[in-house]
Amino acid sequence: MNRLTRRRWIFSPITSWQARRLSRTTGIDHDAAWVKLRTTTHPEEAVYAPRPLPGEQGGQ
Question: Residue 47's pLDDT band (boundaries 50, 70, 90)?
Fold first, then answer.
């Protein structure tokens, strides 16, 4: 487990758990699932999200 993933599990376990479930059901990258969930539940943090999202092609 890399440092970023570990920090996400420590500081935001609910979002991390939901991202794990989303990545398993849809097949997208865990980081992309985490960013999608986080920006959906906390829209004020969307300015910090990378574009395109990790694991996506060309900003879809």
Answer: confident
Distances 7 to 14, 25, 53, 57, 58 between C-alpha atoms, Å: 13, 23, 19, 26, 27
Please say whether the dihedral angle defined by the alpha carbons of residues 17, 60, 50 and 53, taken in this order, is positive or negative: positive
How far is Cα 47 from Cα 37, in angstroms, rounded to an integer? 14
Q: What is the pTM of this model?
A: 0.73
How far is CA 26 from each of CA 19, 20, 35, 47, 48, rounded to the nearest angstrom?
A: 10, 10, 14, 25, 24
Neighbours of 37 (CB within 10 A): 20
Q: What value does the mean pLDDT take over residues 11-30?
A: 91
